[in-house]
Amino acid sequence: MLSQPGGCEIGPRPIDLHLRSLRELGANIEEKHGFLICEAKELKGAEIQLDFPSVGATENIILSAVFAKGTTIIRNAAKEPEIIDLERFINRMGGKVKGAGTATVTIEGVEKLHDVEHGIIPDRIVAGTYLVAAAITGGKIELTNVIPEHLQSVIYKLRESGCRVDVKNRAISLEAPDKLISIDSLKTLPYPGFPTDMQSQMMALMSVADGISIFVETIFENRFKHAEELTRMGANIKVNGRIALIKGVKRLTGAKVTAKDLRGGAALILAALAAEGETIIENIKHIDRGYDNIHGIIEGLGGKIIKRDTPIQD
Ligand SMILES: CC(=O)N[C@H]1[C@@H](OP(=O)(O)OP(=O)(O)OC[C@H]2O[C@@H](n3ccc(=O)[nH]c3=O)[C@H](O)[C@@H]2O)O[C@H](CO)[C@@H](O)[C@@H]1O
Ligand SMILES: C=C(OP(=O)(O)O)C(=O)O
């Protein structure tokens, strides 16, 4: 028995693709009072066509198919690097997964897996967030232990905004321009398109760039909550459904703002670093969920940031 999943409130976030696919593999799933009651004597391989290349659903099917009898084929699978890492992990344990990183993933069921030591891939969204931190503060940064290929769409947009970005085998360095320039348009898409998880941070950056940028959020229906908070800090942003128009301002000013979700919260930290005066960000539990020691790292980079466990009274 599982509770319905949580996560950031960035849209309805249905799990129909997960449930339908698991049922196709032979699982019995009942939805009752906010819980999922799942049962299966044995799962059997199946051909599964996803309506959308959902990352979570692709991962869930792969995991379920590892011990299923026979072969499972996922079509229109997600191609994110994390799927490739999952394939590598399972195969090193004795599983039989192939095709990760393409739209068709095939899983041959096995009887058992064995122990393995596996290092997961570096977090491309955390890396992207620190690149934007340097860009928004007119600074320089070198990131090591990153996989530049995973950040290609982000690097492309950062270059478009005037940043100098150099890439080595496992390192990325960025030098901010004297004046950031707007990017014409940014559309979030499944990988290798621009990641939805970097949209908020890029919006903070474009808030202080010269010119107008248009953002289109195609993955999640309600992922512009940070726009209102950035506006409190002096940003000029208009949102209409899934489209946001950002007109860069000369300077943001510190304000009391609230993190409404994980990446939106990170965007507020970035905006605060570039803003005049002090910013207080509330509800930082969202940020803590996706960034290890972000305050310590930003402090190490020269930012002035204090983390408090209790809300600040007016
Ligand atoms: C494609 C994409 O950018 N995926 C991101 C998404 O993955 P995550 O796995 O959370 O999201 P999905 O890739 O599953 O969702 C993408 C889209 O599919 C829809 N959907 C999903 C499952 C389902 O059963 N039914 C359904 O309609 C979602 O509502 C959403 O509109 O958020 C993660 C955490 O922020 C990121 O790491 C992933 O890179
Ligand atoms: C939305 C995110 O995470 P979650 O899916 O856990 O809510 C995120 O990582 O930006």
TrEMBL record:
Q: Which UniProt keywords apply?
A: Cell cycle, Cell division, Cell shape, Cell wall biogenesis/degradation, Cytoplasm, Peptidoglycan synthesis, Transferase
In this chain the Enolpyruvate transferase domain maps to 5-295
Q: Which Pfam families match?
A: EPSP_synthase (PF00275)
Q: Using the UniProt record, give the first listed, main subcellular location.
A: cytoplasm
Q: Which InterPro entries match?
A: Enolpyruvate_Tfrase_dom (IPR001986), Enolpyruvate_Tfrase_sf (IPR036968), MurA_subfamily (IPR050068), RNA3'P_cycl/enolpyr_Trfase_a/b (IPR013792), UDP_GlcNAc_COvinyl_MurA (IPR005750)
At the top of the EC hierarchy, this enzyme's class is transferase
Coiled-coil regions listed in the entry? none
Instruction: Name the catalysed reactions.
Output: phosphoenolpyruvate + UDP-N-acetyl-alpha-D-glucosamine = UDP-N-acetyl-3-O-(1-carboxyvinyl)-alpha-D-glucosamine + phosphate
Looking at the keywords, is Acyltransferase present? no
Q: What biological-process terms (Gene Ontology) are attached? A: cell division; cell wall organization; peptidoglycan biosynthetic process; regulation of cell shape; UDP-N-acetylgalactosamine biosynthetic process
Q: Which GO terms describe its cellular component?
A: cytoplasm
Protein EC: 2.5.1.7
UniProt entry tagged with the keyword Chloroplast: no
Q: In which pathway does it act?
A: Cell wall biogenesis; peptidoglycan biosynthesis
Q: Where does the record place it?
A: Cytoplasm
Q: Which family does it belong to?
A: Belongs to the EPSP synthase family. MurA subfamily.
**Protein name, entry field:** UDP-N-acetylglucosamine 1-carboxyvinyltransferase
What is this protein's gene name?
murA
